[in-house]
Amino acid sequence: MGDAMQKAHGLTFDTPASVPSAFLMVTSVALFKDELFTGPSNIGRERIIDELTRMLTGALLYKRAQ
Q: Which whole number is the average pLDDT over 37-54?
């Protein structure tokens, strides 16, 4: 799926490293939400989804300086 996304959108990323990393990031937040987001900030589901989307989208578009 990662390779298909690269091809379809003209992206370049290291699929074997990036896809499992993204999966683990999302899974960790889902599993440990209550432990990670405690206190007065009261970070809700939509805010977490928005931030993960922003981070993962930015990572997809990242190009290393040469």
A: 86
Among candidate residues 64, 36, 65, the one with its CA nearest the CA of residue 48: 36
Is residue 39 pLDDT above 80, yes or no? no
Domain count, the chain: 1
**Domain presence at residue 66:** no
| Distance (Å) of CA 22 to CA 13, 25, 41, 52, 56 | 12, 5, 25, 9, 7
